[in-house]
Each structure stands twice: as C-alpha cells, then as structure tokens.
Amino acid sequence: MESGGRVALLTFFAVLAALIPVAFGFLIARFAARRTRDDDRHRARRLAAAMRAHLHGALSARALRRLVKHADEATFWDALETHLVRLNAKSRRRLGATLVRSHHLAAERRVLLADSPRRRELAARRLGMLPTSASRRALRGAMGASRGIVAHTSARMLAGMGDLTTLEWLLENPGHLRGRTGRQWADLFQAFGPRALPRLHLALELGVPDPAILRGVIEAVGHGGHTISAPPLERLLRHTEQNVRVAAARALGRLGEGSSAPALLRALDDEAWPVRAQAAWALGRVGRDTAADALANRLVDRAWWVRRHAAYALSRLGERGTQALTTAIASSDDRYAREIAEEALASLRRSA
Q: I need a labelling partner for 19 at 20 to 30 A (CA). Which of 3, 69, 238, 352 fits?
C-alpha cells in the first residue's frame, strides 16, 4: 500500500509538472491576445480622434489622409463604426470629401460587386457612412444588380444621402426589393427626408399598384406632415386592401386636417374593425367636435379597440366630447361602453 501511494503521488506530480507549462503558455497567449486587442482599440481611438480634429479644423486634410493611408482595414472601420457612429450627415459628407480617394473605400466598392451577400451588405453599410460620388455610383450599381438584402441596404444608404434619383428608380423598379413589408418600405421612404415628400405625393396621385409599397408611401407622407396629400389619402379610405385603409386613416390622423373629417366619419362604418379603430383615433386628432355623435355611437362597437379609440377621441374634442362621455356613463345600457367612457374621462382629468 505504501509503495502504491508513492507511485500515485509521483504520478500526480508528473502530471502537474506537465500541465504547468501548458497552463502558463495558455495564460501568456491570453495575455498577448488581450494586449493585441487593447492596442487595436487604442489605434482606432487615435484615428477617430484625428478625424474629429480634422472636422473641427485642427488637422489638415493632407495629414488625415496620411494617417488613414497607413491604418489597416480593421483600425479604419473600427474608428468609424465604433467611435464616430453618431456623426451627423454634414460631418460625414465632409469626411467623405476628404477621404474620397482612400484605398479603404475603394476596397469596399470592389467587395460590393463581388463577394457573399452578407459581406456585400456590410460593404454597403460602410460606404453609406462616408458619402462620396464614387460610393453613390457603386451603391446604385449594387442596387440595380442585386435583389433582397443587398439591394435594400444599398437603397437605404442612398436614402440617407438624400439621393432622390434612387427614390425615382425604386418607385419605377420595385421588384428589386420584392418581399419587403409595408413597414420596411415606410422606413426606407422616410430616410430620404422631407425633400422626398412631393415625389411620394405624386406617387399617391398616380397610383401605386403594390399594396406594401403603397402603405410605405402613405406612412411616409403621414409622418412627414405633408398636408397636401390629404385628398388622395381620403380616397384611399375606400381601397380594397384593409391594411391600406388602416394606413390611410392613421396618416390622416397625423396630418390633422379638419377637412378630412367627413371621409373619416364614413370610415367609422367600415366593415373591418381595424379601419374603424384608426378612423376613430384620427377623428380625435382632427379635432372636429361635429364628430362627437358618431364617435359616441362607436362606444358600443363590437370591437374593443374601436370602443377605446372612440372614447379617447371624444376626450380630445372639448366640451361636446366630454358631454358625450358623461352621457354614456349615466345612461348607456352597455356595461363596456360605460367602463371605457369612465376610463377616458379619468385619463382626461389626470392630464388636466
């Protein structure tokens, strides 16, 4: 037993002696990797600081270009994607003009046309960070030659540059972004900014066959407060697609044009409850107290969301709306109508 114990002890120390160099090597490798990461982050921070200094007039364009020329790909893009992600559009344009001939941008333009879809999408995002005429041409080419996510990302970057030629192309060639949802189209159209609203209004007037794209246009003009678009939006309250009618009612509520009240009142009788609900919400935004009676009738609607929007719309219509809610609480035979009227009145008192 004593001999066996010595053998076991010797075996333990032998294994320990073999493991110590391995563990020590692992720790050294880990320390070296951490040191490398720290050095990489430090270089990216220094380059980002140089870019900021250039934007503030403290570093010449020539000096910045020299620094960028000697920076590796990871450092250059880390400086932009991590440390300068909040730069405004004006600063990005200025930085892009300074670095227009950078080999880093040229490399991304090449990748944009000849790599995996995931890598091409990344290239599109990177080129969108520093707007230049060369990047704009490359993104347009990728958008025209691609489908799906690459085309969508290229279009989104061009939208951020305010490239209205791209908006025109998208409206005429929507198939390149086939499968995008109405929400995605809306986000894309809104990214073009206020200058796109007249063209989107024209699209409403001329007609947009694809319901998803049409919803995107509707949401964009509503968010943009383009009141001139109220008449075509009112006509779209009679569209065959339920989701289009919902979007049109929501957009009219955002525009808040009193002249849209008659069309919205008619939409309160729509066969689809989501349309009735959005029409009720919009009537509260439009602010015409002549809608009070019609909204009061919707307090007994079979859909809860319609009742809720009708009650809260009434709470926004001043004395006449408040009176309609008070009457419903006192005399309605519908318990749910009384409850939602009480809730809306209570909310009104809290906000007063």
A: 3
Distance CA 258, CA 253 (A): 10
Count of residues making up the chain: 352
**Cα separation of 229 and 233, whole Å?**
6
- Residue 307 within any structural domain of the chain: yes
Q: What whole-number distance in Å separates Cα of residue 278 and Cα of residue 267? A: 9
Per-residue pLDDT band for 1 (boundaries 50, 70, 90) equals very low
Structure tokens at 155: 């279009």
CATH classification at residue 323: 1.25.10
Q: Are 307 and 300 in contact (CB under 8 A)?
A: yes
User: In the chain, how many domains are there?
Assistant: 2
The pTM is what?
Answer: 0.81
> Distance (Å, rounded) from C-alpha 244 to C-alpha 221?
14
1 contacts: CB under 8 Å, gap ≥ 6: none
Does any domain span residue 245?
Answer: no
Residues 6+ apart with CB under 8 A from 53: 59
Domain contains 260: no
Which range marks the domain in which residue 347 is found? 288-352
